[in-house]
Design a protein that fits this description.
This protein is an alpha+beta fold. 56% of the residues lie in helices and 12% in strands. It is built from 26 helices and 16 strands. It is elongated.
Length: 725
């Protein structure tokens, strides 16, 4: 079977209309029309996928943003390198690997939708995840916070675990392949194809040398522990800002030696906790046998480190207690069966044992659902809404008909949707619960069934939340407080949410409802934000000015980002900023106008001040004379001045007198003579400042004006106008 030949592709030049063959050009490449020289981009579609934008270029090919014209949605389309998909046997292998990758459906794995071949090129169609990668974060911030790295590592490990359950080994785990769907949800991509690429590359080191496992460099068999190594190296880099090996080389021999002696994380990043450092060092152990023996073990270790770091260790104990409860249930069933067998008739004992066995089997069957619900709950408490929603939805789907776990999963899904500000999804959940009614509940859960039905009807009816709603502090009604509070917040009734959240935080759910208390940290964050908002609103009503309110608003540090509260604050911040800016603009305009008016006034007064300065100087010279060495502009020396008129000055000579015009005396000399009479008089100093400024003696003028202003503050208001240019 021959390989598919590239389909011909052509485009019309937008300027001259010439038909140009573009089959050899890459999508979106700029080419030049051979007829007119016009440059334009190459348009390309692969079957029903229209290429719109280049997202990135990697080792296996280029990723584009494309529009699916059949489903009218945007997707990521990966166009593989020609040397990876050109041959028939490799194309078939790629198709098979793509099918396996597409079978992995997990919130921390980038979903592969389909694959195909067009224009002689193999392509993959994937979920569009465009909020950046871990590589982007490292590039931007160098060293990332430990909490963020652990959360990302947990999610990536879960994604790798889900893929490994389908028989997939990634082979190219690195920061660039860990993408973010939102600020809390990490997804790992490029599953299933690295193996085919490695086969095609021959002796090439497939994968980034920093992250590739040592066994690959030794041509030894790989398994999931190789991906654990690569993930560990990735997290090491994110925490420390550097790779776990020192030195750069593409030589397999040199790399093997470097990887035998990894850098100690506590040396590279001294502030990293001991638990996290131990986990990462174990992940990058050169010997695969010394790494984690399973993804479950790795996830538990990362979650424990995260719990210790953030102070949220409850889930560890609860997970252990859950396993203990299931074990005790089985043991209790066995002991009861033995006791009944010994003291009751055989027939009655068999019936009782069968009933207990059925209850025990149901308890054991529900344990995985409860465990997955608890995992989703932890995601939601950490505000990872997009990670929690599909988990709750899957639990609800798997628990269909099993009450009350089905309704509890639905209510928690609705809570996640409200937190994610997706009211339509929450509305649909409430409709589903209301429509399900009170079926499939045990007799002892009749009241609980009514609770679900009533709360769902209230929330699905799009009616206002009941005022002064109160709940028993130890029962299921406490959960309704949380639902009502989130709905109030989304409806922008933020102040009304405070008493609801306050009730929830102070409630003490007990018995089989104890788990509801897990949401207290979640509720506390919203309560703190609501109180901050309420305090700010109350302060605003007192009547502080816009600038003061804006400054107070800027001081608010919200614990929940992208909520209705943050929207309200952002909107008010923008409104106040606009108001403040308008006021500042108006104030500036007023000051500028005031300054213009002052300058005009100074301009009108200046001739009078200059005339007064000269008259005063003439009077001083006629009354007291001036003695001192003087040189006129012609260089003639004098010993003083005996008298003056408006036009002339009578100068002292060694043997007589000489009358010269004022214009023959340098301005600096005239100013010095005037200053000698001014003494400490503020008015005389001001007049001298005006003359000095007029004759270009700016520095002297400013000193004189400052001296005058110190004695008479009214002169200070005129200084800026006097020296305005």
């Amino acid at each position: 079977m021959a390989a598919e030949q590239p389909a011909s592709a052509s485009q019309l030049c937008p300027r001259c209309g010439a038909k140009i063959d573009t089959s050899a050009a890459e999508p979106l490449a700029r080419i030049e029309c051979p007829q007119c020289g016009e440059k334009f981009r190459v348009e390309r579609s692969f079957n029903n996928f229209v290429i719109e934008e280049t997202l990135g270029v990697g080792g296996m090919g280029t990723v584009y943003k494309a529009r699916d014209t059949l489903l009218d949605r945007h997707v990521a389309l990966k166009l593989l390198r020609d040397d990876l998909g050109g041959e028939v046997d490799h194309a078939a292998r790629l198709q098979q690997e793509a099918r396996v990758a597409a079978s992995v459906n997990h919130p921390n794995v980038i979903q592969v939708f389909s694959s195909g071949t067009d224009h002689g090129k193999f392509y993959l169609v994937m979920e569009l995840v465009d909020r950046g990668s871990l590589d982007d974060l490292i590039e931007e911030r160098k060293q990332l916070p430990e909490e963020l790295v652990l959360a990302t590592g947990i999610q990536a490990a879960k994604g790798l675990r889900a893929a490994y359950a389908k028989g997939l080994i990634h082979r190219d785990v690195k920061p660039a392949n860990i993408l973010f769907a939102d600020e809390h949800t990490a997804k790992i991509g490029d599953f299933g194809l690295a193996g085919v690429a490695a086969e095609k590359s021959g002796t090439e080191i497939w994968g980034t040398p920093y992250y590739v496992a040592p066994e690959r460099l030794k041509n030894e068999p790989e398994d999931f522990r190789s991906d654990i190594y690569s993930l560990g190296a990735t997290l090491f880099h994110a925490l420390s800002g550097r790779a776990p090996i020192e030195g750069e080389t593409n030589s397999a021999t040199a790399l093997r030696e470097l990887k035998e002696h990894p850098v100690d994380l506590r040396t590279a990043a001294p502030n990293v906790s001991k638990d996290t450092a131990q986990i990462l060092q174990q992940m990058i152990a050169p010997d695969p046998a010394k790494r984690f023996s399973s993804y479950d073990e790795l996830v538990r270790a990362l979650e424990r480190a995260y719990g210790i770091l953030t102070g949220d260790e409850e889930f560890i104990g609860k997970r252990r207690r859950r396993r203990l409860l299931v074990g005790l249930a089985v043991l209790a069933a066995a002991l009861i069966a033995v006791g009944i067998w010994a003291f009751v008739s055989r027939k009655h004992a068999e019936q009782t044992v069968n009933a207990i066995k059925a209850q025990t089997e149901q308890l054991i069957a529900l344990a995985p659902l409860e465990s997955r619900t608890a995992e989703a709950r932890r995601d939601l408490v950490q505000l990872h809404y997009q990670a929690a929603k599909p988990k709750f939805a899957q639990v609800a789907l798997d628990a269909k008909g099993r009450q009350p776990i089905y309704d509890w999963a639905q209510f928690q899904l609705a809570l996640a949707a409200l937190a994610a500000r997706e009211p339509s999804q929450a509305q649909q959940v409430f409709n589903d619960v209301a429509n399900a009614g009170e079926r499939n509940f045990a007799n002892e859960d009749v009241d609980l069934a009514k609770f679900f039905a009533n709360i769902a009807k209230t929330l699905s009816a799009r009616e206002p939340i009941p005022k002064n709603f109160t709940a028993n502090s130890d029962g299921p009604e406490t959960f309704a407080l949380l639902l009502f509070a989130l709905k109030q917040i989304n409806d922008r009734n933020i102040v009304e949410a405070v008493p609801l959240l306050d009730q929830f935080v102070n409630a003490k759910p007990s018995g089989k409802f104890t788990w509801i208390a897990d949401y207290k940290p979640f509720a506390q964050k919203y309560l703190d934000d609501c109180r901050s908002y309420a305090d700010w609103k109350n302060a605003g009503e007192i009547g502080t000015n816009a600038q003061a309110r804006l400054e107070k608003l800027k001081q608010i540090k919200l614990k929940v980002q992208h909520s209705a509260i943050s929207d309200e604050i952002d909107a008010e911040r923008n409104r106040l900023a606009t108001e403040v800016a308008s006021k500042q603009k108006a104030d500036t305009a007023a000051k500028e106008q005031e300054q213009k008016n002052r300058v005009q006034q100074i301009a009108q007064k200046k001739p009078r001040w200059l005339a007064q300065w000269k008259r005063t100087l003439i009077d001083d010279l006629n009354r007291a004379h001036f003695s001192g060495a003087i040189v006129d502009l012609a260089g003639v020396p004098y010993t003083g001045i005996t008298s003056a008129t408006e036009q002339t000055v009578k100068m002292k000579l060694p043997y007589g007198e000489a009358e010269i015009p004022w214009t023959k005396l340098p301005p600096q000399t005239q100013l010095a003579i005037a200053q000698s009479f001014a003494a400490s008089s503020a008015d005389r100093q001001w007049l001298c400042a005006v003359y000095a400024n007029e004759t270009g003696q700016i520095d002297t003028a400013k000193k004189l004006a400052e001296a005058a202003a110190q004695s008479k503050p009214e002169y200070r208001e005129q200084m800026s106008a006097l020296f305005a240019r």
